[in-house]
Design goal:
Blueprint (H helix, E strand, L loop, with lengths): L4 H8 L36 E6 L5 H8 L5 E8 L2 H12 L7 E4 L3 H8 L4 E4 L6 H10 L3 E4 L7 H14 L3 E3 L7 H11 L6 E9 L3 H4 L9 H8 L7 H10 L8 E8 L5 H11 L16 E7 L4 E7 L11 E4 L3 E3 L5 E3 L7 H11 L2 H13 L5 H15 L7 H8 L1 H10 L5 E2 L41
Parallel strand pairs: 1-2, 1-4, 2-3, 4-5, 5-6, 7-10
Antiparallel strand pairs: 7-11, 8-9, 8-14, 9-10, 11-12, 12-13
Family: Belongs to the Gfo/Idh/MocA family. Glycosyl hydrolase 109 subfamily.
GO molecular function: hydrolase activity, acting on glycosyl bonds; nucleotide binding
Keywords: Glycosidase, Hydrolase, NAD
């Protein structure tokens, strides 16, 4: 996808009379200035959501595939730096008998797209460094934005995304956040029903062996994800783990994260991998001798109400996949990995009782669309539930379930963990992107008493090759 950030930002300025300017965060009035509260905001109804998908590499084709099953949508534009990727994504639509979208490609394709197309939702699946600028540009162009994780890589970017969302009254939702996983939604509903008492501690993670994929020539365009593991040294991917547990703890809607400390191991594998590959292939020579981020990052977070969250990140070590998802309350306990379990004392409940709890506390959304979501795919179906619910909220004029403050507060862990690691695990303050509104914001409604009327087109095949579970 887009690789020259400096040229990118220059081009982005063409979208409005003023260039995209990131705020001066050391201005004491900026972070406390009152603004429109996007939490609970219901944007005007959109009968048919016109969608543009930007970025058709790893995640984009899966998004096109999933969105194509949702009624009340029209994918009007597809964009990627590489024209051949756009052509492949067009086939997804054509093979389902849907209208071909307008094609855009090249370094300036996305800029041209936002100028020419009438769009309700821009769905962004590009490399990380372009997420915040593209979200900002999309909202300034009059569209809602939905963006793969993270929503920003710096504190300034996270503040600017919030600021523009409030000013334009356009939603900016962070995608692929794991909040719609089946067990995560079950435990969230159980917490809402008081089954775990007061939640006091939670743990989340992204532990996924991506060593080979990060060094794969045909993996990430221009090896961008490997380069991010050189540029930044901290928790580069906190959002999968933090999202679900933050919602369980009512972060931004009853509590807030105040500060963190991060500690990280040295790199014990990536540097060696680069040297071994370069000995066989000169392509990898530029990656030899670089200082890579460590194997495991552990970030510990404190909340205003005295609770704690632990978030880990390791994409190098050879170990089983895990997002932890551990919840500890005054009356109960739950964990997803290595095996789903719920306890109300010293022992996990037996399998029959766990099944009964699932039947009783599985949220209405999952009961309504869960089986269809599994059929469509995308991280086992949670991606499709996420997409469907976002579209359903936009079509019915309902507040979205992860407004901009969620994406900003979960993503800002990236730069803040890097800062803490660089300063020998120094305590780092976490901004309050709600500017005090967390005290009165209400947790989003898990029921489908509103909405729930967006149809699903029939599945035309059992091919799930477009869905990437990374």
């Amino acid at each position: 996808m887009y690789t020259n950030r400096r040229d990118f930002l220059k081009k982005a300025s063409l979208l409005s009379s003023a260039a995209i300017t990131l705020p001066v965060i050391n201005n004491p009035g900026y972070a406390t200035a009152p603004g429109f509260n996007m939490w609970g905001y219901a944007a005007p109804k959109i009968d048919t959501v016109r969608i543009a998908v930007i970025g058709l590499g790893m995640r984009g084709p899966g998004a096109v595939d999933r969105l194509s099953y949702i009624e009340g949508t029209e994918i009007v534009a597809l964009c990627d730096r590489h024209a051949d990727r756009v052509a492949k994504a067009q086939k997804i639509l054509i093979n389902k008998g849907l209208k071909e979208a307008k094609s855009y490609s090249g370094d300036e394709g996305w800029v041209q797209l936002l100028k020419e197309e009438e769009i309700d939702l821009v769905y962004i699946c590009t490399p990380w460094e372009f997420h915040a600028p593209m979200c900002i540009a999309a909202m300034k162009a009059g569209a809602h934005a939905a963006c793969e994780v993270p929503i920003g890589l710096t504190v300034k970017e996270c503040w600017e995304v919030v600021k523009v969302s409030e000013e334009t009254k356009r939603h900016c939702m962070m995608l692929e956040n794991c909040c719609y996983d089946f067990f995560e939604m079950l435990t969230l509903n159980m917490i809402r029903q008081g089954m775990f008492g007061e939640l006091v501690h939670a743990e989340g993670a992204y532990i996924h062996d991506l060593l080979s994929l990060n060094f794969a020539k045909n993996g990430y365009d221009n090896m961008w994800r490997l380069r991010e593991n050189i540029k930044m040294n901290g928790n580069l991917y906190p959002t999968h783990g933090i999202g679900p547990i933050a919602q369980c703890m009512n972060i931004n809607s009853g509590d807030r994260m105040t500060h963190l400390v991060a500690m990280q191991t040295a790199d014990f594998q990536m540097g060696d991998k680069a040297r071994k590959l370069a000995a066989e292939d000169p392509f990898f020579q530029e990656f030899v001798g670089k200082k890579y981020r460590g194997n495991m990052d552990t970030t510990l977070i404190k909340t205003e109400k005295g609770k704690t969250l632990l978030v880990q990140h390791d994409v190098t070590s050879p170990r089983p996949y895990s997002r932890l998802h551990l919840l500890s309350g005054t009356k109960g306990f739950a964990q997803k990995y290595p095996k789903e379990g719920i306890a109300f004392g010293h022992s996990f409940v037996k399998e029959e009782e766990l099944t009964s709890l699932k039947e009783k506390y599985t949220p209405q959304l999952v009961k309504f669309i869960g089986e269809k979501a599994k059929e469509v795919g995308g991280h086992g179906g949670m991606d499709f539930m996420m997409d469907w619910r976002l579209i359903d909220c936009l079509r019915n004029g309902l507040p979205i379930e992860q407004p901009v403050y969620e994406g900003a507060s979960w993503s800002v862990i990236v730069p803040l963990s890097c800062e803490s690691v660089a300063k020998n695990s120094k305590t780092v303050h976490i901004p309050d992107f709600t500017k005090g509104a967390w005290k009165t914001n209400q947790p989003h409604d898990l029921s489908l008493k509103e909405g729930g009327n967006t149809g699903i087109r029939p599945k035309v095949s059992k091919d799930k090759s477009n869905q990437l579970d990374v």
